[in-house]
């Protein structure tokens, strides 16, 4: 038996260590563009005001899908800017994520309603399909309901200008702006 | 002031750890006896000062000293005192201090109980443990200091402990898990000391065996507690999720189980020596890897708390030094011959080899599944997630093979067993477990189910072969009168293997026969789940010490019986965390089944979304885990202090404490 064989465990570990080193610089929550360009998962759900909604209802024009919850302080900070975007005519759908129904209704009443409709996801099942890791998160959908972009953290003026506007422009001139 | 004392004690302990690592090292190399002997008081001193630091931090939590940043972010005046105490390790910094305390504790235990080891060996072992302690001291002091104050602005009230952690399961789970994780550092230190001294003989295996068994039994208990907690606290009725953090504790367990078995071969027969050393290194490396995975945040997990790339880099560097260094030492010093004694394919050696191969392959399977998402994203191939289907697909055949081997192994003799005799012994177990498998699905489930039959066959196989082995042993020694002479080590093996049979049966049958329904219920409603009738009596408001809750009261009874059991499921809102609602499941536990209710969302008009479960045999999983730990304890209590070399060396003196 050659002594060289005893080095095999060390080599295996060196490979793993290199992998971990690379892994440290990767953001585990980053969703690469390879997975974008997939359609919104099919769903039917209740809305906050008691109606029903399904994935195809979001089609027709580009829209934002904003994941929020009343337990999320950052969502409260983000809300005013969503109101502002809605005033500018941006179509925004809400995904009320793992939240309490009554609290969510009070929230909308007190802070204003920038949403066309709010999808209820109390158990986080749709969130799981979407790969939601926390709130707030905002997805940019095109007119066919294909996800073009996912942003984690609050949307503000800077994020809107640097992240969302270029992506909207990249959707092609054939479609109308949201 | 107390907090500063704690901080100071920790720095002193770091100094002692430095001395513990290097003084004995030079003592052994230069042949200076007193320096080598200093390892013992240094290890004890380090433990005392770490313990002082831990006690000071615990004091800060108990008196609500919110000027300490850690206390302010993890505790609250309303928190009951026992949760204030457990809040010490309910966060990153505190849990690392707990880790360090336990490491120093194991080191002091080796120093005090290892009086029978050859002096130079004890010095080497303690030196290695001192080096590990240095790494963790630096980690705590430089990147995760729990004693940092938040002057000048001291908050009035703390942010509170995560409500999920306010539970008895989570009070006990981390200390048990760490006792196991860190305990493998002793086996690791013995392995390195043996490589270093070049005395990789059977004595080495004899010394490290009780320590390995002790670490293994704590880890078994820790994992069992974690699974039990997830089951009743997360409110999904699941007991294992193949989450990266769970896998991080399961991998050292699999490797540690292999180590416990291969050390037996090394001790009794002098075989598998390099392999056992490699397993000892591997087991502790996996414990460190678990720490790295949890602390660095490179994998997403429901459990991960306080992740930070700086800490990740530190742990990775530490991992590189410890694992890289020890594997280099292994490559340079491990003996090339694996022992000369031969054995046939029908021998206990071969069965234990099969056990090792299966356990290490299982471990590699978990490692691969856990790291696959990382590998794929490191190679820019996108993102994948590996879920339970992969693990279940791999684990069912691996564990089935393990169960089969586990039945035969204890019946075999060292070196060689006559095949004919074996066939005679195995006839009864084959027949009995086959009959069980054929009857059980009809008797229990009312119809044929291949999976259930298979599960029952495996569990019955383990039990019946154990019984056959006992009969064989008694016959050889002259009947029932020989019962007391069989020894604790034998009974420990029997109990641990029975525990495994319980786990197999529990995991299989609960997966197959569990039943659940999501229903909308208002007060007075009844719902049937199989033959069980759940009635919803309504909810009422209750106030806990630091939460208010809606408590849903249910009764459940079997349609054929009059016995009514009450269940209380709660939705809790913790005062410090407005809007963060926690679910407390209502469980009617039983040996054969748990009936489980969790309260979902209020739907309005007084009705609730309710999930009712029937989970047969789920408790067997934890009974099995506890039995394994009991088996390990029995083995420890039975260690005989036999002399290794006249006058010079005795195995670690567990006997005296027993």
Tell me about this structure.
Chain A is α/β, with parallel strands linked by helices. Chain A has a single domain (37-170), classed as 3-Layer(aba) Sandwich (Glutaredoxin). In chain A, 35% of the residues lie in helices and 19% in strands. Chain A is built from 5 helices and 7 strands; from the N terminus they run αβββαβαβαββα. In chain A, the strands form 2 sheets. A 5-stranded mixed beta sheet of chain A has the order 5-4-3-6-7. A two-stranded antiparallel sheet of chain A has the order 1-2. In chain A, a hairpin with a 5-residue loop joins strand 6 and strand 7. Chain A starts with 7 loop residues before the first helix and ends in an 8-residue tail after the last helix. Chain B is an alpha+beta fold and 658 residues long. Chain B has a domain at 515-619. Chain B contains 19 helices and 9 strands. Chain B has helices at residues 2-30, 33-37, 39-62, 69-74, 81-86, 92-113, 119-143, 168-197, 202-233, 244-269, 273-296, 309-333, 348-378, 388-408, 419-445, 450-477, 488-513, 618-637, 654-657, and strands spanning 515-521, 526-529, 532-543, 547-558, 565-574, 581-584, 586-588, 593-604, 607-616. In chain B, the strands form 2 sheets. Chain B has a 5-stranded antiparallel beta sheet, with no helix packed on it. Chain B is flat, with a radius of gyration of 26 Å. Mean pLDDT of chain B is 87; it is low at 301-307 and 641-658. The chains are: A alpha/beta (178), B alpha+beta (658). At the A-B interface, helix 1 and helix 3 of A face helix 11, helix 12, helix 13 and strand 8 of B.
Please describe the topology of this protein.
The complex is a heterodimer of chains A (178) and B (658).
Chain A: H1 8-24, E1 44-46, E2 52-54, E3 63-68, H2 73-87, E4 92-97, H3 101-111, E5 118-121, H4 125-130, E6 137-141, E7 147-152, H5 157-170
Parallel strand pairs in A: 3-4, 4-5
Antiparallel strand pairs in A: 1-2, 3-6, 6-7
Chain B: H1 2-30, H2 33-37, H3 39-62, H4 69-74, H5 81-86, H6 92-113, H7 119-143, H8 168-197, H9 202-233, H10 244-269, H11 273-296, H12 309-333, H13 348-378, H14 388-408, H15 419-445, H16 450-477, H17 488-513, E1 515-521, E2 526-529, E3 532-543, E4 547-558, E5 565-574, E6 581-584, E7 586-588, E8 593-604, E9 607-616, H18 618-637, H19 654-657
Antiparallel strand pairs in B: 1-9, 2-3, 3-4, 4-5, 5-6, 7-8, 8-9
Helix pairs in contact in B: 1-3, 1-7, 3-6, 6-7, 6-8, 7-8, 7-12, 8-9, 8-11, 9-10, 9-18, 10-11, 10-13, 11-12, 13-14, 14-16, 15-16, 16-17, 17-18
């Amino acid at each position: 038996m050659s002594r060289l064989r005893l080095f095999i465990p060390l080599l295996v570990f060196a490979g793993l260590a290199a992998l971990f080193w690379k892994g440290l610089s990767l953001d585990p929550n980053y969703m690469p563009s390879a997975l974008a360009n997939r359609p919104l998962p099919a769903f039917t759900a209740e809305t906050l005001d008691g109606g029903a909604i399904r994935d195809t209802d979001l089609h027709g024009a580009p829209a934002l899908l904003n994941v929020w919850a009343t337990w999320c302080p950052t969502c409260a900070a983000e809300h005013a800017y969503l109101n502002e975007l809605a005033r500018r005519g941006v179509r925004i759908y809400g995904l009320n994520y793992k939240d309490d129904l009554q609290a969510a209704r009070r929230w909308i009443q007190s802070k204003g309603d920038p949403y066309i409709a709010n999808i209820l996801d109390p158990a986080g099942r749709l969130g799981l399909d979407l790969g939601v890791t926390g709130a707030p998160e905002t997805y940019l959908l095109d007119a066919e309901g294909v996800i073009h972009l996912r942003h984690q953290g609050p949307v503000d003026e800077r994020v809107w200008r640097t992240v969302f506007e270029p992506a909207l422009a990249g959707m092609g001139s054939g479609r109308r702006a949201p | 002031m107390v907090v500063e004392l704690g901080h100071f004690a920790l720095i002193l302990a770091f100094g002692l750890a430095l001395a513990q690592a290097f003084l004995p090292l030079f003592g052994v190399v230069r042949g200076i006896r007193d320096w080598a002997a200093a390892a013992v008081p240094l290890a004890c001193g380090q433990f005392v000062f770490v313990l002082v630091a831990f006690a000071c931090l615990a004091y800060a939590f108990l008196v609500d000293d919110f000027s300490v940043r850690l206390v302010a972010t993890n505790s609250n005046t309303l928190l009951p005192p026992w949760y204030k105490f457990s809040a010490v390790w309910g966060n990153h910094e505190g849990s690392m201090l707990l880790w360090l305390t336990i490491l120093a504790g194991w080191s002091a235990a080796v120093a005090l109980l290892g009086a029978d080891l050859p002096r130079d060996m004890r010095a080497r072992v303690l030196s290695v443990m001192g080096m590990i302690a240095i790494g963790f001291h630096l980690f705590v002091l430089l990147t995760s200091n729990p004693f940092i104050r938040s002057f000048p602005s001291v908050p009035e009230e703390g942010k509170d402990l995560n409500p999920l952690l306010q539970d008895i399961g989570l009070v006990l789970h981390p200390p048990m898990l760490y006792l196991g994780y860190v305990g493998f550092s002793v086996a690791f230190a013995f392995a390195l000391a043996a490589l270093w001294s070049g005395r990789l003989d059977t004595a080495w295996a004899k010394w490290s065996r009780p320590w390995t068994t002790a670490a293994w039994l704590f880890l078994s208990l820790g994992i069992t507690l974690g699974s039990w907690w997830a089951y009743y606290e997360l409110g999904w009725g699941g007991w294992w999720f193949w989450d990266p953090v769970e896998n991080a504790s399961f991998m050292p367990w699999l490797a540690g189980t292999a180590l416990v078995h291969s050390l037996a071969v090394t001790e009794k027969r002098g075989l598998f020596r390099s392999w056992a050393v490699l397993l000892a290194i591997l087991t502790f490396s996996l414990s460190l890897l678990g720490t790295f995975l949890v602390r660095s945040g490179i994998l997403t997990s429901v459990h991960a708390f306080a992740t930070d790339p700086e800490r990740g880099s530190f742990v990775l560097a530490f991992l590189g030094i410890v694992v890289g260094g020890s594997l280099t030492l292994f490559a340079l010093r491990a003996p090339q011959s694996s022992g000369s004694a031969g054995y046939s394919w029908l021998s206990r050696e071969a069965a234990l080899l099969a056990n090792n191969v299966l356990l290490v392959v299982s471990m590699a399977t978990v490692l691969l599944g856990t790291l696959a998402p990382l590998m794929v994203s490191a190679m820019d191939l996108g993102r994948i997630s590996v879920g339970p289907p992969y693990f279940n697909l791999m684990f069912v055949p691996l564990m089935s093979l393990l169960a089969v081997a586990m039945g035969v192994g204890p019946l075999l003799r060292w070196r060689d067993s006559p095949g004919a005799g074996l066939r005679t012994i195995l006839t009864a177990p084959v027949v009995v477990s086959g009959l069980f498998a054929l009857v059980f699905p009809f008797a229990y489930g009312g119809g044929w189910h291949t999976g259930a039959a298979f599960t029952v066959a495996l569990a019955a196989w383990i039990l019946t072969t154990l019984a056959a082995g006992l009969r064989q042993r008694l016959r050889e020694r002259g009947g029932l009168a020989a019962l007391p002479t069989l020894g604790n080590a034998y009974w420990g093996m029997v109990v641990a293997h029975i525990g495994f049979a319980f786990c197999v049966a529990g995991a299989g049958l609960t997966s197959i026969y569990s039943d659940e329904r999501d229903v909308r219920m208002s007060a007075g409603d009844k719902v049937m789940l199989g033959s069980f009738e759940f009635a919803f009596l309504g909810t009422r408001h209750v106030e806990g010490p630091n939460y208010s809750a809606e408590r849903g009261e249910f009764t459940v009874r079997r349609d054929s019986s009059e016995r009514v059991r009450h269940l209380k499921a709660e939705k809790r809102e913790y005062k410090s965390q407005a809007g963060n609602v926690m679910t407390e499941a209502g469980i009617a536990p039983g040996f054969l089944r748990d009936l489980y209710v969790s309260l979902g969302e209020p739907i309005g008009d007084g009705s609730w979304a309710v999930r009712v479960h029937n989970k047969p045999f789920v408790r067997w999983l934890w009974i099995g885990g506890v039995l394994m730990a009991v088996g390990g304890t029995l083995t420890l209590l039975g260690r005989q202090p036999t002399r290794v070399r006249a006058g010079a060396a005795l195995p670690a003196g567990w006997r005296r404490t027993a």
